[in-house]
């Protein structure tokens, strides 16, 4: 989501890094470039002003930290201030002392309330073994209840609904009773949205709030709407005193400004980000990781966490070792295929790694999950020697693999090429780019 900004900041930092000494004029020029880059990314202008002022003050007054040259110092300050701007630390979900914890999803139409309700329920189920229930309180769009039901079915969560002819506040009242009977530990209320904030909607939401005393009022905003998302957040917060924000569609072509301004403007934390339409595409928002992602240092921690969730830890360590030694072979590849499908598209994972977001090699690298079965078939046609020594591959062996797996030769060629590319990239990431990152931070 931040490619443009990242590229600009990286260029600015690169320029600075090449200088043996940073003069006042250099600093001013750097600040000007950062300011423009942030404005270009659609960050709120007031937020930008404060940000630049703080960075400038800190950079001017900074003691020289051991081991850091002035340019690295500035990178460090920018990174810290980006983190501060976005809220410093992750804000966990509030939990009620007695069940149920009530979560009210609010936001404009199409922001992603219903989808996010589903994602959140799935997360709670998986991570907390929770037993959530939805209340269908959007009665204005006939399709809304059906949509919630489809989402709920896909993750096996019950929905309380009373059709579209009952007052939403009454639906919520009865839904709460139902949840008490069923002893659900979470109630997630899917409310209606409007194209823009209006009084009738707010009245209804306030009534639902007064009735349920929610532990969370999560405002769902579409990151793609940029400054409008920030205005929306201000509007909802004024009337509902929201407890947190979920920023959706960060996977889209956004400039990222909303992510960077909402916290500073409203004072309310971003708790989650949505990065895709699937139920799995909801991540806890970590300001520090987002800052390093924006600075182009990769979202290493998110990646590691994702990997840990799906990988056997020992196996992951083994893989890491093999990648470093460049001994990652086709057997490992076969093992990884299953794991990777669980982690999401390989390209997405690679993009989160340091320096990878803008790597031109990634533009050509694309592994369709449907191809995995074919890849498996090809590898399974290899001899043990070929699997453990990928360098053995040659045209006649490839021809044999094509015949053995029943796949066309072009596909075999492509697979071998992709495997080699991947091996090279993994090696680069585990060795080269870590060094690059440490270098950048003066480590
Ligand atoms: P609501 O009107 O606020 O309930 O919004 P919906 O949940 O119906 O979402 C509107 C559209 O946005 C749907 O097509 C969703 O699939 C899509 N959507 C929601 N969250 C995300 C996200 O994080 N990324 C992407 N790409 N699409 C999303
Ligand atoms: Mg909806």
Short structural summary:
By secondary structure, the chain is an alpha/beta fold. Helices cover 59% and strands 9% of the residues. Bound molecules: guanosine-5'-diphosphate (GDP) and magnesium ion (MG).
Structural account:
The protein is built from 20 helices and 8 strands. Strands 3-2-4-1-5-6-7-8 form an 8-stranded mixed sheet, with helices on both faces. Helix content is 59%, strand content 9%. The radius of gyration is 25 Å and the shape is flat. Bound molecules: guanosine-5'-diphosphate and magnesium ion (MG).
For this entry, give a set of tags.
59% helix, single chain, Four Helix Bundle (Hemerythrin (Met), subunit A), 434 Repressor (Amino-terminal Domain), Rossmann fold, 8-stranded mixed beta sheet, binds magnesium ion, 3 domains, disordered C terminus, binds guanosine-5'-diphosphate, 443 residues, alpha/beta
The residue ranges in which pLDDT falls below 50 over 5 or more consecutive positions are 432-443
Name the CATH superfamily classification of the largest domain: P-loop containing nucleotide triphosphate hydrolases
What is the typical, i.e. mean, pLDDT? 83
Q: What pattern of helices and strands is seen along the backbone?
A: HHHHEHEHEHEHEHEHEEHHHHHHHHHH
Main pleated sheet: 8 strands, mixed
Distinct helical segment count? 20
Number of structural units classed as domains? 3
As for the CATH topology of the largest domain, it is Rossmann fold
Radius of gyration: 25 Å
CATH class of the largest domain: Alpha Beta
Protein name: Signal recognition particle protein
Organism: Limosilactobacillus equigenerosi DSM 18793 = JCM 14505
Family: Belongs to the GTP-binding SRP family. SRP54 subfamily.
InterPro entries: AAA+_ATPase, P-loop_NTPase, Signal_recog_part_SRP54_M_sf, Signal_recog_particl_SRP54_hlx, Signal_recog_particle_SRP54_M, SRP, SRP54, SRP54_GTPase_dom
């Amino acid at each position: 989501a931040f490619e443009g900004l990242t590229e600009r900041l990286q260029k600015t930092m690169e320029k600075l890094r090449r200088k043996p000494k940073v003069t006042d004029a250099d600093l001013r020029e750097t600040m000007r470039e950062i300011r423009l880059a942030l404005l270009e990314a659609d960050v709120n202008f007031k937020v930008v002003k404060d940000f630049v002022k703080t960075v400038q003050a800190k950079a001017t007054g900074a003691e020289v930290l051991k081991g850091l040259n002035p340019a690295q110092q500035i990178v460090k300050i920018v990174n810290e201030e980006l983190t501060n701007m976005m809220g410093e630390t992750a804000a966990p979900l509030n939990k009620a002392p007695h069940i149920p914890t009530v979560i009210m999803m609010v936001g404009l139409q199409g922001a992603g309330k219903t989808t996010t309700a589903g994602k959140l329920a799935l997360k709670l189920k998986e991570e907390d073994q929770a037993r959530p229930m939805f209340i269908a309180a959007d009665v204005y769009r006939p399709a809304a209840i059906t949509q919630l039901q489809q989402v709920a079915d896909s993750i096996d969560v019950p929905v309380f609904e009373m059709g579209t002819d009952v007052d939403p506040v009454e639906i919520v009242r009865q839904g709460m009773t139902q949840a008490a009977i069923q002893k659900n530990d979470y109630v997630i209320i899917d409310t209606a949205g409007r194209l823009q904030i209006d009084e009738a909607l707010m009245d209804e939401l306030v009534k639902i709030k007064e009735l349920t005393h929610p532990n969370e009022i999560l405002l769902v905003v579409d990151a793609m709407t940029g400054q409008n998302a920030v205005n929306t957040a201000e509007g909802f917060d004024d009337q509902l005193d929201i407890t947190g924000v979920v920023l959706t569609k960060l996977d889209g072509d956004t400039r990222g400004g909303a992510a960077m301004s909402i916290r500073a403007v409203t004072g309310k934390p971003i708790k989650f980000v949505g990065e895709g339409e699937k139920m799995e595409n909801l991540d806890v928002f970590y300001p520090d990781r987002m800052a390093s992602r924006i600075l182009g240092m990769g979202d290493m921690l998110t990646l590691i966490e994702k990997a840990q969730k799906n990988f056997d830890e020992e196996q992951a360590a083994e893989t890491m070792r093999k990648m470093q030694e460049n001994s990652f072979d086709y057997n490992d590849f076969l093992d990884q295929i299953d794991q990777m499908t669980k982690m999401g598209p390989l390209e997405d994972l690679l993009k989160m790694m340091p320096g990878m977001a803008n790597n031109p090699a990634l533009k050509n690298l694309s592994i369709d999950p449907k191809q995995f079965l074919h890849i498996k078939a090809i590898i399974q046609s290899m001899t043990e020697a070929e699997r453990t020594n990928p360098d053995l591959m040659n045209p006649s062996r490839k021809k044999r693999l094509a015949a053995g797996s029943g796949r066309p030769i072009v596909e075999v060629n492509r697979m071998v090429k992709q495997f080699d590319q991947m091996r090279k990239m993994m090696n680069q990431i585990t060795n080269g780019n870590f060094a690059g990152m440490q270098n950048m931070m003066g480590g």
